[in-house]
Specification:
mainly alpha, 6 helices
Length: about 140
C-alpha cells in the first residue's frame, strides 16, 4: 500500500493490508472446492449440450449444439401444430359438407305425412248398446 497519511488510522491500514493479503492467496481448501465445483458444472454443461467433456476442458463449449437441438425441437413442434391445425380445418370442412348434404337431402325428399294408427276405443269393445248412445242414434228410430 502507499505511505500512511496523517489522517489515516493505523488500525484501518493494517486491516486493509491483511484483507488484501487474504484475497491474493486463497486457502488450499478453497482451491480444491472451487475446482470440484467447476468440474461438476462442466460435466453438467457437457451432458446438457451433448458435447464430450474433453471438448469442454479444452475450452470448446459447443453451445451451438444446444441451440441447434433447440431449433430442431422448435421445428418439430411447429410441424406438429401445423398438422393439427390442418387436421382440424379438414374435419371442420368435412362436417360442414356433411351438414350441407343433409340439408339438401331434406329439401329434396318428398313430404310424407302418415297418420298414426287409430287406437281402438273403449266403445268399440263394449258392444252395440253403448255404440248407439255414442253416435246419438236411438234404437227405436
Amino acid at each position: 500500500m502507499g505511505r500512511p497519511t496523517a489522517t489515516e488510522n493505523p488500525n484501518q491500514r493494517a486491516y486493509r493490508e491483511k484483507a488484501a493479503f487474504r484475497a491474493a492467496e486463497p486457502a488450499e481448501a478453497a482451491i480444491d472446492e472451487d475446482a470440484l465445483l467447476e468440474a461438476a458444472m462442466a460435466e453438467k454443461r457437457a451432458v446438457a449440450a451433448g458435447v464430450p467433456l474433453s471438448d469442454i476442458n479444452r475450452g470448446r463449449l459447443g453451445g451451438g449444439n444446444k441451440e441447434r437441438q433447440q431449433a430442431v425441437a422448435d421445428a418439430e413442434l411447429a410441424a406438429k401444430r401445423d398438422a393439427k391445425k390442418r387436421d382440424r380445418a379438414l374435419a371442420k370442412k368435412q362436417a360442414k359438407e356433411a351438414r350441407a348434404a343433409k340439408r339438401a337431402a331434406k329439401r329434396e325428399a318428398p313430404v310424407v305425412v302418415e297418420a298414426p294408427p287409430a287406437e281402438p276405443s273403449l266403445l268399440d269393445s263394449v258392444g252395440g248398446f253403448f255404440r248407439s248412445l255414442s253416435f246419438g242414434v236411438t234404437a227405436s228410430a
